[in-house]
Every structure is written in C-alpha cells, then in structure tokens.
Amino acid sequence: MSQQMYVHLPDIRKTGKTWQWEISPERLMSNEGSVDPLVGICATATWQGSIEYAHDIYTLNGSWKVPMLRQCVRCLSDFEWQSEHECQRKYSLVAPQDVDDEEKLDVEVIPISDRLNLMDVLREDIWLTWEACVICSSTCKGLCQTCGMDLNQGDCGCNALASSHPFAGLAAMKFDK
Ligand SMILES: [Zn+2]
Ligand SMILES: [Zn+2]
Questions:
Q1: Are residues 112 and 37 in the same domain?
Q2: Which ligand sits closest to the CA of 155?
Q3: CA 160 / ligand 2 centre spacing (Å)
Q4: Around ion ligand 2, which residues have CB less than 5 A away?
Q5: Ligand 1 center–CA 78 separation, angstroms
Q6: Residue 137: inside a domain, yes or no?
Q7: Could you tell me the residue range of the domain that residue 90 belongs to?
Q8: Residue 13 falls within a domain, yes or no?
C-alpha cells in the first residue's frame, strides 16, 4: 500500500494532480527520499494537496497533520503533539520570466528530467515549521520550583508551607532600596 509519491511535472500539466494520503509513522521515519527522516511520529499522518499549472508555474497547495511524541518544556512529560500546517510551493521547469525578483525567489526551478518527490516536500515542510518549545496544554502548571513535583499531578504543599512560614509575610512586603 506504499503510495507512489513522485510526480513528473510535465505529465500533470493538463490534468493537475490531487492527493489525499495517510502515511504510516514507519514510512515517515524511514530513509526514503532525500530529506532527513522525521523523529517521534506516533500515529498515522495525513498529507493532502493539489498541484495546478498556469503560466509556466506549477502551484502546490497542501496541508498535513502529523502526530508526534514531544516533551513538554514546562512539566517535562511526553505527550502527543498534533503538528499541522498548510503550505504553498511554486515550481517551474524553466527560470520564470516576466516576474519581478521577489516572485522569482518563490519559485523553485526543477529540471525537466527530474521528478518531484512529495515525501520530500512534506518532510521539508515539517522540519521548516518545527517548534522547539511545545507545551502539553496551555493550562500546564509545570514543575514545582522547590521540590520538582509535576504540579499537574496534584499539589506538593511547598506553597502552603511557604505561606505558613513565620517570615512568609516578608515576601509580600516591598523594600525601598
Ligand atoms: Zn506540561
Ligand atoms: Zn513542591
């Protein structure tokens, strides 16, 4: 059931191409293609999109959803993170004419003999949108600064202890320097 992810652009000039794929974690983390394998994929990913041709330019519009196992930067626990993104790429078989320089930069030129690997496009986009710091939930309470307990699991009591401390009142006072 391994889909063919290569596209030879001249072949789809008239018809265009659309796809809607489910891709296994094993495949995303394999050595297929020329972009680095992904890491930590924990469930089936989806990758869908279309390519349309107009005025020498092939425009790819795609979207993907990839569940991965990440570590929360607040509470340090592993959780399933849904990474999703919409991407647009432009390709041409010849260096585009009649467009300004800025537009030229947007267009990737692909030699006519080459095929476009949609697996590479997907992986590239996932790496490009990689977020270094992710949190398991916007309400994640993180770890206690004093004892290191995961405060999502309950209250460690350090705060209560601090406020019953005889000098706890000092913390609330303002000192003039
Ligand atoms: Zn967390
Ligand atoms: Zn604590």
A1: yes
A2: 2
A3: 9
A4: 144, 146-147, 149, 156, 158
A5: 8
A6: no
A7: 6-128
A8: yes
Q: Which sign, positive or negative, has the C-alpha torsion 21, 25, 28, 30? A: negative
In 37-175 the beta strands, taken as DSSP E runs, fall at 45-54, 57-71, 78-92, 107-109, 116-117
Residues with CB under 5 A from ligand 1 (ion): 72, 74-75, 136, 140
Residues 6+ apart with CB under 8 A from 136: 72, 74, 75, 77, 79
Residue among 87, 92, 67, 91 nearest 78 (CA): 67
Shared-domain flag, residues 116 and 147: no
Give distance in angstroms: CA of 123 to centre of ligand 1.
26
Give percent of the chain with pLDDT exceeding 70. 85
Residues 52 and 112 in one domain: yes
For 106-136, the pLDDT digits (tens) are 899 988 888 999 999 999 999 999 999 999 9
Q: What's the 32 CA to ligand 1 centre distance in angstroms?
A: 33
